[in-house]
Amino acid sequence: MALDAIAESIIERGFYEARLGIAGLTQKIRFSVTKKEGAQAYFVLHTDKLVSLADLVKIAEETHLPVESPNGIAFPKGKTSKDFAIS
Hints:
By secondary structure, the protein is an alpha+beta fold. Helix content is 23%, strand content 36%. The protein has a 5-stranded mixed beta sheet. The radius of gyration is 12 Å and the shape is globular.
């Protein structure tokens, strides 16, 4: 897995906090780093709070990591789960 410095530091820390505008209020949402199992395991930023897909894409682009909430999952532009596979 070849991650850049931004993604590596977030994985080392174990979480990422983002300030998002939800329902007209600015809220701080904490995303924890979890390992997503499947055909290929990879790290993903996860939260149990509902976050819009537009915000998920924005966070994925900022962190260079996949981001997941109950609404769905977003990857950085041009990337898929295969790009984040843990060997």
